[in-house]
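hey m, so remember when u said the tokens were messed up on ur end? i reran from scratch. heres the input so u can diff it against urs
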Amino acid sequence: MAYMLAIDQGTTATTVIILDKALHVHACANREFPQIYPRPGWVEHDPEAIYATVLAAVADALAQANLDGKQIAAIGLTNQRETTVVWERAGGKPLHNAIVWQCRRTQQACEALRAAGHEALIQRKTGLVLDPYFSATKAAWILDHSLSRARAERGELCFGTIDCFLLNRLTGGDVHVT
């Protein structure tokens, strides 16, 4: 029998569920990870801690269901909204902690873009409002504060939300999609 494995990588924990074709649950495992609050209004996660919880929750669920990975026919992955990571293309090492979706550290950058008259263009091109919730200003902040813009311009870095980071890491760097 083939099974499906669902990974829900959330804001405070990773949950893995294994289901059969009739959608009967055969296992459910959950692993929490720490929240990091460097300043008021700032929220971060350690991408390595998140990855470790994914691996551990998958192992726990497989053990609960008495299955091995070869019996998994499909994997689904959902993630914690706009939490943003920048990592090295070669090796997958994160440059900085992930900036979590609820972090407000890029409020001033959004206000500067708004004051410069870019709000309508951003909304027209992306369909999104100009807000620190979204990933672009978070990625810019990481590049500015890790002094890595030149590396990004040379194609040495990857950027994405947690699903993108996890897919890249789980495929040994072969896949960079969201």
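this time it looks ok to me. The first helix runs from residue 47 to 65. if urs says something different then somethings off w ur setup not the seq
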